[in-house]
Amino acid sequence: MKQFLLAVACALAVLGYVLLLWRGPWWIDGSHLRTKNLQPADGVVITGFRTMLVALGAGALAGLGLYYTHKGHRQTVALFEHTREKIESRKI
């Protein structure tokens, strides 16, 4: 059940991220943006907002990658310690 809820939360996060990329500029700064006949100034705001979201997403993925790497490293260290203890116990 925990894995299912995690999968649903991840799917909702991805959906929310895509919706923010698509409609976010108008949701956040809609009073200053046109919906039709966009001008160059509108493009600057939209591009800046989307660039910020992509940078935040890349940072979040990098953080998750670091966490995953740290967990794998801890498991490897624990396995190494266990193996070393078994070898040392055989020597005695």
Describe the structure.
The chain is an all-alpha fold. It is 87% helix and 0% strand. It has helices at residues 2-29, 40-91. α1 packs antiparallel against α2 (40-91).
Give the H and E element order.
HH
SSE-based structural type: mainly alpha
Which range does the strand content fall in?
under 5%
Biggest β-sheet strands, sense, barrel: none
Mean of pLDDT: 91
How many structural domains does the protein architecture include? 1
The number of helical runs is 2
Shape: elongated
Strand count = 0
Tell me the Rg in angstroms: 23 Å
Distance from first to last alpha carbon = 47 Å
Helix content: over 70%
- Low-confidence parts: none
Features:
single chain, about 90 residues, mainly alpha, 2 helices, about 85% helix, elongated
Quick synopsis:
The chain has helices at residues 2-29, 40-91. With 92 residues, it is mainly alpha-helical.
Write the layout of secondary structure elements.
Layout: H1 2-29, H2 40-91
